[in-house]
């Protein structure tokens, strides 16, 4: 199945604006280790099996908060169902990509593209929609809490013991924060990132 606007591995994406050693510094600061990647990968069968349910919870949260639904609305304030559906397909793939934990060049380039798509420099261009032109930075990081805390019960649906579920959850926390840091690139004044 082709996901509209999904560009992982696209040769048209520009190179990541950070050097490999800078990416490694971020991972070290987050204490994101190979062991964490192993735990992320352990979550893959669980999140694949429950991705639509997870998205129902996340979309329910966004939809119940007008200040968040605003970012998926037409300029007249009405929700754009087509836009929401397209983003949902990419969001589902994001869950899988996060659990696969393949931090190669294609993944890295795409993370910076995701950041651009939230920022005024790229918002609405992928889907050609007439929506609000920018997602405010404050909501990128704030959404990490509801996303992660509603994900945790799904992680417990696997066959892992409580300690393993907690390690998987900790790995997800680090992975989500890592991605948010990368997505924030277009929001930060040049020289301050």
Automatic annotation (TrEMBL):
Organism superkingdom: Bacteria
All residue ranges annotated as the Globin-sensor domain in the record: 21-192
GO molecular function, one term: oxygen binding
Protein's name in the database: Protogloblin ApPgb
Native source organism of the sequence: Hydrogenibacillus schlegelii (Bacillus schlegelii)
């Amino acid at each position: 199945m082709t996901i509209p606007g999904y560009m992982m591995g696209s040769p048209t994406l520009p190179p990541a604006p950070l050097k490999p050693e800078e990416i490694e510094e971020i991972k070290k600061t987050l204490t994101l280790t190979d062991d964490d990647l192993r735990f992320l990968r352990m979550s893959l069968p669980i999140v694949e099996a429950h991705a639509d349910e997870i998205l129902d919870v996340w979309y329910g949260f966004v939809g119940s908060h007008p200040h968040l639904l605003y970012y998926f609305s037409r300029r007249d304030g009405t929700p754009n169902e087509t836009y929401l559906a397209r983003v949902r397909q990419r969001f589902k793939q994001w869950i899988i990509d996060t659990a696969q934990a393949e931090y190669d060049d294609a993944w890295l380039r795409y993370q910076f593209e995701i950041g651009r798509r939230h920022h005024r420099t790229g918002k609405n261009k992928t889907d050609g929609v007439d929506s609000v032109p920018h997602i405010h930075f404050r909501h990128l990081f704030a959404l990490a809490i509801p996303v992660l805390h509603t994900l945790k019960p799904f992680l417990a649906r696997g066959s892992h013991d409580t300690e393993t579920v907690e390690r998987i959850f900790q790995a997800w926390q680090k992975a989500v924060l890592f991605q948010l840091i990368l997505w924030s690139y277009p929001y930060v004044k040049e020289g301050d990132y």
